[in-house]
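Minimal example, chain plus oxa(dethia)-CoA.
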Amino acid sequence: MPGARVTGWGIAVPDKIVTNADLSLRLDTSDEWITERTGIKERHIGGTTSELAIEAGRVALARAGVAPEDVDVLVLATTTPDEVIPGTSATVQAGLGMLGGAFDVNAACSGFVYGMVVAHGLVLAGSQTVLLIGSETLSRFTDWDDRSLAVLVGDGAGAVVLQAVDGPGQLLGWHLGANGTLRDLLHCPHGGYMSMNGKEIFRHAVRAVIDSSLVALQHAGLGPDDVDLFVPHQANARIITAAASRLGIAEDRYVVTIDRYGNTSSASIPLALADALDTDRLHPGDVVLLSGFGGGMTWGSAVLRWGG
Ligand code: UT7
């Protein structure tokens, strides 16, 4: 049976950086509150979901040495589409000059992990090359007068190229979960702004990351001690620390990028993964645990053996 491995990665963030100090000038908030409660110091704001996805996709394809016309399928994880119809993946497919299939995955902030499992499934079903992108512009669905949300969000995109290999490939285990009875905890109507019950999401998120990570690791025949690098969704530094400490994963084995990017929903895991790769924190043979959670609520984890 064929497996898949990541052969390229890339990111894109808007040029405009908004610091906590910038936000404190127009909102009743402070750098101290935002840093202490969330770990965020600044975020990039701007662009559209398709523009950011195209830029990140281009970088990932170039790094993998793959021409856009050789990509069989584009999987675009986003919860902030440019339009209702067409899927944002159509704009990205055309923008990249691709010929293959393209579709959106919306599992809110868990979208990249859902997409990772779907992309591996496509390879198992016969695709040679899949481009997986998480791209978001949460800023477009944020009321900038609502301090409870405005300080959290950021825009950006991260992409990976997955190519078929003979043998087992990188994916060792995975788990996807959802509980739609919690749908109202994070909500955005058509034409409106996001609203969120942050406290409740926080509570469920820590539990979801721990449980889902353990199930995915068990599926892989591994435990938390085997994890070389934990790449969690970046929604709040306190959620990351709480989940990592309960999993027994020390600080030097997990990635935090929320200070620079804020919460970029389904782009946060590929942004963090790219950061780890670009700073030489990930090596062939390493066990990588990706874990995300978000609106729905949804959650999911994937265990990969890097390289291969
Ligand atoms: O991506 C997945 C989905 N989202 C999440 O994962 C978010 C999960 N939740 C969280 O990260 C946290 O709950 C928040 C960061 C959203 C909020 O932190 P918290 O520690 O739960 O604060 P809180 O909502 O309980 O608010 C504490 C106080 C309140 O004031 P009072 O009632 O104690 O007087 C808020 O009004 O902080 C106030 N507050 C602020 N103060 C300054 C809320 N937002 C702000 C702000 N600046 N931006």
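The chain has a mean pLDDT of 97. The radius of gyration is 18 Å.
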